[in-house]
Amino acid sequence: MTLNPDAVFDTLTITKELSVVSGGATEGEISLFAYLSCLLSVYEGNPPSEWGYQFSATHTAAPYSESLASAVDELKISSLLVQSSSGLQLSNGGLEEWNQYASLGRFQARMPYLTGACGSTLLMPLPAVGESISAEPSLRRALELSSKRELLGEGGRETLMEHFRAVSEAVPEADDLMIPAVVWLEYLSTTLDGAGKIRPSEEADDWAV
Asked: Would you say the pTM of this structure is higher than 0.85?
């Protein structure tokens, strides 16, 4: 099987980062934080097509990537990821593999997005991150259409970029992408009702920071 190297690196990095916070990572959390990392790359002006792999929406309002799923499966088979009571963790061999990837410039360029996304859990409970992401415009649009469609297409990206322009005005000098990530996630959380559903008053996607 030919694996996507970006997906392999992201899987290893997210597992490593979340292991510090919660002792491990689930496969769903790996997809979630990889998607948030991709969104932070878009926030900095990079087109989604340059992220290296695609995401689609599931019926549970979660992002999914076939490339990530394949990477997780192969890393488990090769014992670079191991299951623990807290979720997936890097084995010693997995940490060595991560160090080899992280020494390369191609992957070093992804680190600010990955650490910024995972760092949001230092200021928000991990479940709250997932709930907030469910209100992200591309995911919301896919759910409205009852479609397992590719995310970050033209339909939802215009609203997303409006959000990001407002965030950049609110935190123009942020040195760590964790800060705009948390500001945006906290905004998304305000569009949800107590049951995690979009409030009817938020359907117009208006936002002023």
From this structure: yes
